[in-house]
Write a structure and sequence with these properties.
Helix 2 packs across helix 3 and helix 2 packs across helix 4. The chain is mainly alpha-helical. The protein is built from five helices and two strands; from the N terminus they run E-E-H-H-H-H-H. Helices cover 66% and strands 3% of the residues. The model has no long low-confidence stretch (mean pLDDT 91). 18% of the residues are buried. The chain folds into two domains: 81 residues, no CATH class; 35 residues. The radius of gyration is 23 Å and the shape is elongated. Strand 1 and strand 2 form a beta hairpin.
Length: 123
């Protein structure tokens, strides 16, 4: 069987989006290349957060070469929103920024200690 987007031609298995939405998966289904049948949770999260209609509109408005990255971003953001309904991915970004700040402070202290030890050693 020949691959067409994310589906095999002649395959009876709809993509994860069409399966969740309980509709026939058309040959030119915009979701099929990005939401394969074996990854149902991927579309379920995106659908829960953004809605199928909005995802469809976003994908239709993008050039083909940008759609994969857009879907990856939507999946990441949707999963973050499901995990943390209040802050979503902003919560994760904030946490990482705090870790960076702490590590930069620790690095500055370690560098200052190295300078101090060198000065003591050469004095």
């Amino acid at each position: 069987m020949k691959e067409n987007g994310g589906r095999k031609q002649g395959a009876a298995s709809p993509c994860a989006a069409c399966k969740l939405l309980r509709r026939r998966c058309a040959q030119d289904c915009v979701f099929a290349p990005y939401f394969p049948a074996d990854e149902p949770q991927k579309f379920a999260s995106v659908h829960k957060v953004f809605g199928a209609s909005n995802v469809n509109k976003m994908l239709q408005e993008l050039p083909m070469h940008q759609r994969g990255d857009a879907v990856s971003s939507m999946v990441y953001e949707a999963n973050a929103r499901v995990r943390d309904p209040v802050y979503g991915c902003v919560g994760a970004i904030s946490s990482l920024q705090q870790q960076i700040d702490l590590l930069q402070t620790q690095l500055a202290l370690a560098q200052a200690e190295v300078v101090h030890m060198r000065m003591r050693h050469f004095s």
